[in-house]
Amino acid sequence: MRSIRLSSGILVVAAASLVPLHMVAAEDATDGSVYLGIENDVFAGTDNHYTSGVHGEYTSAPGETPPLLTPIRRAIAPLLDDTAEWRMILGAGQAIFVPPDIRIAAPAADQRPYAGWLYAHVGLAAEQERRLDIFRARLGVLGPSSLAELVQKRLHRQIGSPRPEGWETQIGAQPTVDLYYQHIHRFGGRFDIGGARFKAEFLPHVRMEAGNVDTYGALGFSLRVGQNYAEDFGPAARRRGASGGGVATPESGFGWSVFASVEGRAIAHAGLIEGPLFSESREAEPERLTGDVGVGLSLSYGPAELSYTHVIESKEYAAQRRTGALGHHQFGALNLRVSF
């Protein structure tokens, strides 16, 4: 019961923070949005490593910053152009990680441990014509309070999947805090083929995160081509751990795009593998250089967009095999965004 109260508290704080954001959005006719992402390795036919994630995010229309965040905006503003439009971002989510074989009650010490993470975040998005900068702070909990064990066991029971047997060994309860920065630049334009109008874009990005769960730096890029899709910042804003998927100006009518993305990461600390900072270290040894590739499709109609991305991740810890069930991990990400 205490775990449920702690977990619910995070979501209550997130919901309460919506009040000033809603007031900001109401003052401006420009689009705000709601964004929901579901990630699961069932799309790839596996059940291990990063096995499930769900996250939601509210992005306000451009407007004034709530008083609580005004000092942060003032500190950041000199680094950006005067034309930047500021948006508020508020989100919450859950991520579930498991060992290679969930049927084993006592996973090997050098394998990825069971881990659940429940979190909420608040941030600022500074949008310019071809540039997006995200600044975010996130609070969360690891361990039983994340409700990951409850969610996975109930879901597996409903769909007839094997029961996960090792949650008693999960990473212990601990509060989490991290700071995050993301920059995306957008290059490209429109062109005609056979009388049809297309759009193609190249979007390089950089991401950095520092906290007691994850500390890393990442570089990558995305490519996409399509027709009449929203003016947003592509797959980089929708990848695992990122923010900004709701920053968009939708087009009227039907639109579509296909895209591909690549990212490499330098890992200083991987708390979901080796245990969080200031806690007992685990024997699993994380890889210090990791990466992923993703390909996907998006379909939109007016203010609504639905996209799917299939992601292949490199191995994330030393004992993870390169081939077979323990090899490079795959999962799918289904995302829905509605602007208003």
Automatic annotation (TrEMBL):
<dbReference type="InterPro" id="IPR018707">
    <property type="entry name" value="LpxR"/>
</dbReference>
<keyword id="KW-0732">Signal</keyword>
<dbReference type="Pfam" id="PF09982">
    <property type="entry name" value="LpxR"/>
</dbReference>
<dbReference type="InterPro" id="IPR037107">
    <property type="entry name" value="Put_OMP_sf"/>
</dbReference>
<protein>
    <submittedName>
        <fullName>Lipid A deacylase LpxR family protein</fullName>
    </submittedName>
</protein>
<feature type="signal peptide">
    <location>
        <begin position="1"/>
        <end position="25"/>
    </location>
</feature>
